[in-house]
Amino acid sequence: MRDVLGDQSGPVMEDPGLRMMAWPLPAGGGADWPDARAAGVAWHGPGDTLLVPGLDGYRDGTRWLRPPTDDAVFTDPATLRTAIELVTGPLEEAAELGPLAICRYCGTPTRDAVLVETRHSVSAADHHWFACRPCLTSRVRDGNGRRPRVVRPASR
């Protein structure tokens, strides 16, 4: 997503363990977006808790990929939505298009993913890792790296 936004991105936080990124938006930014959780897009609004790292480090695994500056405190919501839709498709159609997973090996967003690992957590939601079909095939065929064990295909 950062590659799509390029220099138009404002600050962005990342939780590498959960493979999630968050862009701060100005108050009300994104409030009119449709529910796109099916595409992996979550909107946090007033009253929600979001852990934010210090400018020089981590906070519970979250770090700044692009810290805020005096000139860039937020990302423009319209620009961010355009970038998201380039990757996921129209947000209005997220539920119809089906779940979008990020390949654990190559980082490609895909709707044709296979679940290869789940980690259970007592303090948070379980986390799932997926592989796209080409990575799954090449790892099984070529034997490079750890051979993925298919847990189940991603639900549609």
Structure description:
By secondary structure, the protein is an alpha+beta fold. The chain has helices spanning 2-5, 77-88, 94-97, 133-142, and strands at residues 12-15, 20-22, 63-66, 101-102, 109-110, 113-119, 127-132, 152-153. It has a three-stranded antiparallel β-sheet with strand order 2-1-3, with no helix packed on it. Strands 7-6-8 form a three-stranded antiparallel β-sheet. The chain has a two-stranded antiparallel ribbon with strand order 4-5. The model has no long low-confidence stretch (mean pLDDT 80).
Structural class: alpha+beta
Shape: globular
Gap between N and C termini: 23 Å
Task: Give helix and strand order, one letter per element, not per position.
Answer: HEEEHHEEEEHE
Number of helices: 4
Radius of gyration: 17 Å
Stretches where pLDDT falls below 50 for ≥5 residues?
A: none
